[in-house]
């Protein structure tokens, strides 16, 4: 097992998370007094629909800002960074996997895996192409050049997983990654997600209702009545 990158250690203090609200201006979804995760750990987050799982993951990924409090990954105080600096941090440190894959139809699997390189306004080099092809082969995705629209849902999620892992990020965040898959595909994607996070030393955060996937994670918390409680 590789040593986990210290950039993947999470520390939250007095964090308050919510969403804009038309009537009151702001609706708090979740308050976290303290949460620490060592680099390389895995955490599952449960909670009823609308509890705030996605909002929490977005804050932890730096997509959205907390209302107040401290959020640090390693030595980076993410909660103090302006949006552009948060985006730059996220591109270098976080791999994201979503329930609905976020693939670009019309492109092949390899091209989809290489999309983060294009987001940096760069052309993928030979090493990156080889890394993408190797990941897809490792994940058992057939026909890397063919249109991803022709792939099964489980195969599409494996392409999304390869894309999240391309830069071997210290943090892997997955939002209901198995929810739209049949049981066999969900089990395979769950195994790969947990296995590859462990193999690369990444800290893994997963919001999910999938009991099988939750059972493979080291720690489980539940959003209940605006707090994070042991699940
Ligand atoms: N940008 C936004 N503006 C206003 N309200 C929002 C915004 N994003 C989410 N919400 C609301 O915040 C609440 C929490 O949403 P969130 O998507 O985080 O929940 P969730 O636990 O992930 O739910 P699900 O399991 O259904 O995906 C919901 O009531 C949602 O409608």
From TrEMBL:
GO terms for molecular function: ATP binding. Residues 10-231 form the ABC transporter domain. SMART domains: AAA (SM00382). Keywords: ATP-binding, Nucleotide-binding. InterPro entries: AAA+_ATPase, ABC_transporter-like_ATP-bd, ABC_transpr_LolD-like, P-loop_NTPase. The keyword Nucleotide-binding applies. The keyword Ribosomal protein does not apply. Belongs to the ABC transporter superfamily. This is ATP-binding cassette domain-containing protein. It comes from Roseomonas alba.
